[in-house]
Amino acid sequence: MSVTGGNRHDVTQMLPLLAAIPPIRGVRGRPRRKPRRLYADRGYDYPSHRRHLWKRGIKPVIARRGSPHGSGLGTIRWVVERTFAWLHQFKRLRIRYEHRADLHQGLLDLACSLICLRRLRTSF
C-alpha cells in the first residue's frame, strides 16, 4: 500500500498497487500473484489501463464512462465503502494530521486491528 496526498487522483496509484500485491495463498500449489478481476468505477475507465490489465491476465470490471448508472458494481463496491466508514470512525484517519507517512500507516494498521477485534468479539 502507498500513502499519497489527498489531492492526488486515485488512478495514478492503480498500477503500482497491482505491482505490489503479495502472493495470494489458496489451495495447494503455487500461490497466485495477481487477482482474477479488478472492480473499479468510472474514474478508472482509461483504455491504457484496460490494456495493461488484460496483458497481465486480469479481467477489468470497470464501469464505462457515459453509460447509465446501475452497472451492478455498487453491490461489490459496498464492501469498500463500508470499510472506509469503519475507518472514518477514527478521527485521526478521517482528518489526516500526520505529515509523515509511516505514522499515518501505523495509525491505519492500529485502526484495522481494532476493527477486526471488535468484529471478532461480536461474532462469538
TrEMBL record:
**Source organism superkingdom:** Bacteria
Check the record and name the InterPro entries matching this protein.
Answer: Transposase_11 (IPR002559)
Domain Transposase IS4-like span(s) in chain numbering = 2-114
PANTHER family xref list? BLR1914 PROTEIN (PTHR30007:SF1), PHP DOMAIN PROTEIN (PTHR30007)
The name of this protein is Transposase IS4-like domain-containing protein
Organismal lineage: Bacteria, Bacillati, Actinomycetota, Actinomycetes, Streptosporangiales
